[in-house]
């Protein structure tokens, strides 16, 4: 049997360097292109949510600097800033002008952590170290 209708939900997350308008246009073009040339096949695309990526504001510079400073000392290596396609509420704080940063423990990439899968994991020592980083940053900010 062939279903009369198939519904797919697609979640495309963005990093700050991406333009949401361009990303959406590219996704629409790719989906429409995949269906072109198939007789009787029609594609209807509706955006459910456009969640813009977090943009680091000038108020976040000092927070990020302190995170990098303490993390570099504790982990014994430089900790660069980087974008990652995650959906977090930090974007809302940034949009409201509240200094914010995303910092977490564990593997350096989503692939290394096996993120969003049944065996997602992190090394407990990384969690201990990251906890120390956050504690030291809070100490600096709150003293």
Folded structure, characterized:
The protein is mainly α. It has two domains: about 1-50; about 60-140, Orthogonal Bundle (DNA polymerase, domain 1), CATH 1.10.150.900. The protein contains five helices and no strands. The protein has helices at about 20-35, 60-75, 90-95, 110-115, 125-140. Helix 2 (about 60-75) crosses helix 5. The termini are far apart. The model has no long low-confidence stretch (mean pLDDT about 85).
Helix and strand arrangement:
Elements: H1 20-35, H2 61-75, H3 90-95, H4 110-113, H5 124-142
Helix pairs in contact: 2-5
Q: What's the rounded overall pLDDT mean? A: 85
Find the structural class using helix and strand composition: mainly alpha
Number of strands: 0
Return the CATH topology of the largest domain.
DNA polymerase, domain 1
Quote the distance from N terminus to C terminus: 68 Å
Count of spatially separate domains: 2
Low-confidence blocks of residues: none
CATH domain class name of the largest domain: Mainly Alpha
What percent of residues are in strands? Answer: under 5%
Q: What helical percentage do the residues reach? A: 40-55%
Number of helices: 5
Judging by the overall fold, what is the CATH architecture of the largest domain? Orthogonal Bundle
Report the C-alpha radius of gyration, rounded. 20 Å
Main sheet overview = none
Topology as a string of helices (H) and strands (E): HHHHH
């Amino acid at each position: 049997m062939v279903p009369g209708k198939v519904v797919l939900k697609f979640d495309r997350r963005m990093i700050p360097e991406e333009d949401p308008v361009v990303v959406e246009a590219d996704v629409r073009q790719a989906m429409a292109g995949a269906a072109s040339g198939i007789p009787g096949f029609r594609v209807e695309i509706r955006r459910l949510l456009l969640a813009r990526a977090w943009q680091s504001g000038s108020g976040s510079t000092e927070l990020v600097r302190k995170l990098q400073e303490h993390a570099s000392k504790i982990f014994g290596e430089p900790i660069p800033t980087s974008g990652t396609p995650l959906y977090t509420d930090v974007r809302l704080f940034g949009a409201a002008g509240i200094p914010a940063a995303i910092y977490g423990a564990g593997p350096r990439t989503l692939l290394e952590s096996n993120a969003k899968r049944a065996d997602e994991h992190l090394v407990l020592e990384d969690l201990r170290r990251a906890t120390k980083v956050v504690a030291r940053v809070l100490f600096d900010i709150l003293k």
